[in-house]
From TrEMBL:
Protein name, UniProt field: tRNA (guanine-N(7)-)-methyltransferase
Originating organism: Lichenifustis flavocetrariae
Protein's job: Catalyzes the formation of N(7)-methylguanine at position 46 (m7G46) in tRNA.
Pathway stated in the Swiss-Prot or TrEMBL entry: tRNA modification; N(7)-methylguanine-tRNA biosynthesis
Lineage, broadest ranks: Bacteria, Pseudomonadati, Pseudomonadota, Alphaproteobacteria, Hyphomicrobiales
GO cellular component, one term: tRNA methyltransferase complex
Organism superkingdom: Bacteria
Length: 238
């Protein structure tokens, strides 16, 4: 398929996933975890996604989009046992890696959606999320590929509906152009604002930030990351 041919496929957020869904063969521990642990954590297509149904004792519900190997998800879920976390990741090997971490930490406050995050977002109740993390979404750096990016005016609108007022969308990228792309869409959104508190806060990761393999590679290759704290405020998005 040519890159342009991708334009006919559903976009990320509309059920489409342009990246890989599977990779190398899982090793035996991962296969066991996929068979035995994933069914306990997986979110199904018809599940009730209210906080009460997912995590009855959780004080809040948070979402991570594209968790990769799950380093952040496992870290934050382990450090915030009173919160419930939903992690979205279409890549099966990423899910398997996360399950190893979840198993080692005996996490019970995480639900996994093994698919396009957009399909899950639209099923969440309005104003139900206390925070959303989108760290290093697939960059699609070539001009003709940019339509594949997860961030769009449309996805911001859909995220705005499910995020409570005053909560934060944390966005990280090592691709300058993706930072600019996202800021342009945030600036024209009536639902979000980016208001840095210091001149260089976009260069600093958030407190309690575990680095990932992806981030380490970006740093090694001379692409310093950009960290944007984007606040949900303004108009209702119903
Ligand atoms: C570059 S990786 C970054 C992974 C991780 N967030 C990190 O910081 O290491 C981007 C991830 O987004 C996932 N992804 C791609 N399209 C997605 C979609 N539509 N919904 C959810 N995740 C998606 C990919 O499978 C991949 O694991």
């Amino acid at each position: 398929m040519t890159e342009e041919a991708g334009a006919d496929r559903p976009r990320p957020g509309e059920g489409g996933v342009f990246g890989r869904r599977t990779g190398r063969k899982l090793h035996s521990t991962q296969s066991v975890l996929m068979r035995e642990l994933l069914p306990r954590l997986a979110i199904g297509p018809n599940d009730d996604l209210t906080r009460d149904a997912l995590f009855p004792s959780a004080a809040e519900l948070r979402l991570e989009i594209g968790f990769g190997g799950g380093e952040h998800l496992a870290h934050h879920a382990g450090h915030r046992p009173t919160a419930g976390f939903i992690g979205c990741e279409p890549f099966r090997n990423g899910v398997a890696k996360f399950l190893e971490l979840a198993d080692a930490k005996a996490l019970t406050n995480v639900g996994i959606w093994n698919g396009d995050a957009g399909l899950l977002i639209d099923r969440l109740p309005t104003g139900s999320l206390a925070g959303v993390d989108l760290f290093y979404p697939d960059p699609w750096p070539k001009r003709r590929q940019r339509k594949r990016r997860f961030v769009s005016d449309d996805i911001l609108h859909r995220l705005a509906r499910v995020m409570a007022q005053g909560t934060m969308l944390r966005f990280a990228t090592d691709i300058d152009d993706y930072a600019g792309w996202t800021l342009a869409r945030v600036r024209r959104s009536p639902h979000f604002a980016w208001e840095p508190t210091t001149a260089d806060d976009w260069r600093q990761p958030w407190p309690d930030w575990p680095s990932t393999r992806y981030e380490a590679k970006a740093l090694r290759e001379g692409r310093p990351p950009v960290y944007l704290s984007i606040v949900r405020n303004g108009q209702s998005a119903d």
